[in-house]
Structure formats: C-alpha cells, structure tokens
From TrEMBL:
<dbReference type="GO" id="GO:0004803">
    <property type="term" value="F:transposase activity"/>
</dbReference>
<dbReference type="Pfam" id="PF01609">
    <property type="entry name" value="DDE_Tnp_1"/>
</dbReference>
<dbReference type="GO" id="GO:0006313">
    <property type="term" value="P:DNA transposition"/>
</dbReference>
<dbReference type="GO" id="GO:0003677">
    <property type="term" value="F:DNA binding"/>
</dbReference>
<feature type="domain" description="Transposase IS4-like">
    <location>
        <begin position="118"/>
        <end position="183"/>
    </location>
</feature>
<protein>
    <submittedName>
        <fullName>Transposase</fullName>
    </submittedName>
</protein>
<dbReference type="InterPro" id="IPR002559">
    <property type="entry name" value="Transposase_11"/>
</dbReference>
C-alpha cells in the first residue's frame, strides 16, 4: 500500500523535531518531493495563462518568474547541504522567499534565528545612544571596539564606565577599551578575566554587571523582538521607530514635571 506524503507545512514541522541525520534526510527528501510537485503545478498554470491576458496576467507571470527562480535556488541549496553534505557558504544561502535580505543569526547553542543582528549602546538612564544594524552575523567580540569608537566619535570622549554582555569579552577587548580611556570595563561573563583587571572593585563590578540596557523592554513593549514590516528599508525603519518610541517614552518619564 502506497504511503501518502505529508503536506508542505507538516513536512517542514516534522523536520524541526526529528533527531538523527538519516531520519532528517528522509524528511527532507519528502519535503523536496512536495516542493518539486508544487513547482510543476506552478509551471503548468503559467503555461496555460498567456501574456495576452492583459496587464494582470503579465504581472502574475512576472511574479511567477521571480518566485520560480527562488524556489529552484532553494531546492538546489537543500540538495547540496542535506543530500550531498556540502557546506554551503552563508553568503549563498537563501533563508526566506519573501525577505531576501534576511540573514542567519546563530547565538551560541540557542536556536537559529533569521533577520539582522543589532548592536546598541545606552546611557546610565537607559536612553539608547547608538544603534547599528549589522550586516551578516559578526561575533559580538568583534563589535565591541567599533561601538566604543562610534561612541567616542559622537560624544567626544569615552565613557568612564561601561558594561557589556559576556559575548563581547576578551582580553584584547579589555586592553583596548582601557586604552580608549574607560576606567571600568565590566563583562557580564568574566570568561577567564579577573575582576581586578576589569574594574577598581568588586562592588563596582556588581553594579555594572547588574546594569540592564532596556533590551528586554524594547522587545516586549516596543516590538523589537520581531519585525512585521517587509523589505530591508522597512526593516531598518521599524527598528529605528521602536528605538525612538522607547527613547521618547523614557525621556518623558525622566523629564521633571
């Protein structure tokens, strides 16, 4: 008795939860079969709709041509990566048919996410002072010094004290931060660094380590956890709108009545 294939969404969901390469490969083959059939149906429909059907038909054909190329690229990418075991360079990977600008973001052992990495700095009040929407997936440790240098360029001097997540920590970053004029540079995870090398006292380290830049509030209350606008330009606008709204609300709260 022939076994029916799962539907597209179901096949994709099964891949997320299956364990072991042989089982995952089997599920990917099922998904590829479904995708090939869907592409075949799309080509048949396109062949039956002539360009002479007017502007609407021409527009539909253009959309079909656009997505056909992306689907074929996605199929080839999956066959290379899953079936052939080839390591596809990140720059060649297509992770979304609808948001072509989306990039792969890997944060430690946590689930892979898609979008763009954001680095921001804030002051003691929590006000966001700078924001960079990164290209690619640079390591946090590579972005500490550029963010500090941007701060100095904007405000004319280095902050006396600074705190950063553990991903930004390295002995070289600590040394260069000190050379830039930062007296106390605290990383949330010491990663082999001594507290005495980072700050003047353990009390200062606890104060800086416990500082929160407002990122959780930005995600929960201002929508920064998930962008719902389409296109890279709209993505950037969405991010900046969230930050500006957060700053305005915080500024109103901090202003004397």
């Amino acid at each position: 008795m022939a076994r029916s294939l799962p539907r597209g969404k179901e096949a994709g969901r099964l891949i997320q939860f299956v364990r072991g390469r042989p089982k995952r490969t089997k599920r990917y083959r099922e998904l590829l079969t479904i995708t090939h059939k869907t592409l075949e149906y799309l080509n048949q429909a396109a062949a039956q709709l002539p360009l002479a059907s007017g502007p609407a038909g021409e527009l539909w054909q253009a959309v079909v041509c656009h997505y056909r190329l992306l689907i074929e690229r996605s199929i080839a990418q999956t066959e290379r990566r899953v079936l052939a075991g080839e390591a596809v360079p990140a720059g060649e990977k297509l992770v979304s048919l609808f948001e072509l600008h989306a990039e792969i973001i890997v944060k430690g052992s946590r689930d892979v996410q898609y979008g763009h990495k954001i680095n921001l700095t804030s002051g003691r009040s929590g006000l966001i002072l700078d924001l960079v929407i990164e290209a690619g997936n640079p390591a946090d440790s590579e972005r500490l010094l550029p963010m500090l240098e941007r701060h100095i360029a904007f405000y004319g001097e280095a902050p006396q004290q600074a705190a950063a997540d553990g991903g930004y920590a390295s002995r070289n970053n600590l040394r260069q931060a000190k050379e830039l004029g930062i007296s106390d540079m605290a990383f949330h995870k010491k990663t082999g660094l001594k507290i005495e090398d980072m700050v003047k006292s353990r009390w200062v380290y606890r104060k800086l380590r416990n500082f929160r830049a407002g990122i959780s509030c930005l995600k929960r209350a201002y929508g920064l956890g998930r962008c719902t606008w389409r296109g890279l330009d709209h993505f950037k606008t969405y991010v900046w709108s969230s930050v500006v709204a957060y700053n305005l609300a915080l500024f109103a709260h901090l202003s004397p009545t």
